[in-house]
Design a protein that fits this description.
With 373 residues, this protein is an alpha/beta fold. The chain contains 14 helices and 10 strands. Helix 4 links the parallel strand 5 and strand 6. It starts with a strand and ends with a helix. Bound molecules: prephenic acid (PRE). Prephenic acid binds next to helix 12, helix 13 and helix 14.
């Protein structure tokens, strides 16, 4: 279906049905992935992992191969980092994950018994690269997380998920890390929550994790972004944690110490989509029934408004008058904004809604003027 210009009709339902829950307590609690942006030294990896094991995380992360914008930045410690991850597994009992971007990375991870691999945003944009990884994953039992592509293209994200699913991987999850933008904004990567919500609507069983560190780009926003994700019923959070964030070899501004992470994790509230309370569910159903009735009324009212718009369109055609009437449109906006303010409604929301209605009026009158009758 086409909602908000997001076409999700292409996805293959047979594939969607294959998703297995990424973790046992899905829909009951949040899944926590944490660890340094990059594995730098064995001591840094192990000390972070020990602290995170006491903070009860589910999965330890560390980048071994880092796709960097420019070649002179630190591009990852390489295969020796996988041995450090193996030490994390044996010493702390934590499961471990890292990013893969090509066949060689996948083969090295499979050889080292890495529990989960993720496909990064810069790789998800390339169907060739994703297919190469999917082929290399074939026949393995590894779990796979797929980050959104850097550009806000839901089809590419869905396509990557489908490619990996078609290679026989049963445990697949998605990571929402936000989207690149030229706009200067408080986020490093624009969340554009609607895209992840669409993905969730398309694949209700898919595990969706919010990479709060990459959306935020700085420590200050981590809590706000993570709580928002949990309120939107994400299944978990991925966060970058470093023993000495300011000295990190990559992404220093967005990493936090294990202590800060542990406190933040405690403060965040997981809210399941459904709860097991008959009385509450009955009153919720009741309220939702009222919303259904109001939505019906809104649609009927919009329909009545459009009938009048069509009559005005016919009048404009007969009298050879322009469709756009800026004076009248300004009056409508001013009147409705005053009303919205009185009622405590967001003027941004009401103006967006009116603009959409006005655009539809123009489209309808345009068709009437074009019609040969
Ligand atoms: O008042 C008109 O002339 C209309 O056609 C109605 C309407 C509207 O949707 O309210 C539509 C187009 C004009 O620009 C102004 C207002």
């Amino acid at each position: 279906m086409l909602y908000n210009n997001i076409d999700t009709k292409h996805s293959d339902l047979a594939v969607a049905q294959q998703f297995k829950p990424f973790f046992k307590e899905k829909n009951k609690r949040a899944f926590w992935i944490a660890g340094p942006c990059s594995a730098e030294t064995e001591e840094q990896v192990l000390s972070t992992a020990r602290s995170l094991a006491s903070a009860n995380i589910d999965l330890f992360r560390a980048g071994i191969w880092k796709p960097r914008t420019r070649p002179n930045s630190f591009e990852g410690i390489g295969t020796q980092g996988l041995e450090w991850l193996n030490k994390v597994q044996t010493e702390t009992g934590l499961k471990v994950c890292t990013e893969v971007a090509n066949t060689a990375h996948v083969e090295a991870c499979l050889k080292h018994g890495i529990d989960v691999v993720w496909i990064g945003a810069r790789t998800t944009v390339s169907p060739f690269a994703v297919q190469e990884i999917a082929d290399a994953l074939q026949g393995s039992e590894v779990k796979v997380l797929i980050k959104n592509p850097i550009n806000p293209d839901l089809k590419l994200w869905v396509g990557a998920i489908e490619r990996v699913a078609k290679s026989g991987i049963e445990h697949i999850g998605a990571i929402h890390r936000g989207f690149s933008s030229f706009e200067i904004n408080k986020y490093r990567n624009q969340p554009r929550w609607q895209i992840a919500i669409e993905l969730k609507r398309e694949f209700p069983d898919l595990t969706i994790i919010c990479d709060s560190s990459h959306i935020s780009g700085n420590r200050v926003l981590l809590e706000e972004v993570s709580q928002k994700a949990l309120d939107l019923n994400y299944d978990g959070i991925m966060m970058e944690v470093h023993p000495n964030p300011d000295k990190a070899w990559s992404d220093a501004e967005q990493q936090v110490t294990p202590e800060v992470f542990a406190k933040l994790k405690e403060r965040l509230i997981y809210r399941p989509a459904e709860i097991d309370d008959a009385a509450f569910n009955e009153s919720l159903d009741n309220l939702r029934l009222q919303i259904d009735e109001i939505d019906d009324e809104i649609i009927a009212l919009i329909n009545s408004r459009m009938q009048i718009v069509d009559d005005i369109g016919a009048y404009k055609k007969r009298n050879n008058m322009s469709i756009l009437q800026t004076k009248r449109w300004s009056e409508i906006l001013d009147r409705c904004m005053t009303k919205a303010t009185e009622l405590g409604l967001s003027t941004e929301f009401i103006s967006k809604m009116l603009e959409t209605i006005h655009q539809e009026s123009i489209n309808r009158q345009h068709s009437i003027l074009k019609r040969k009758d």
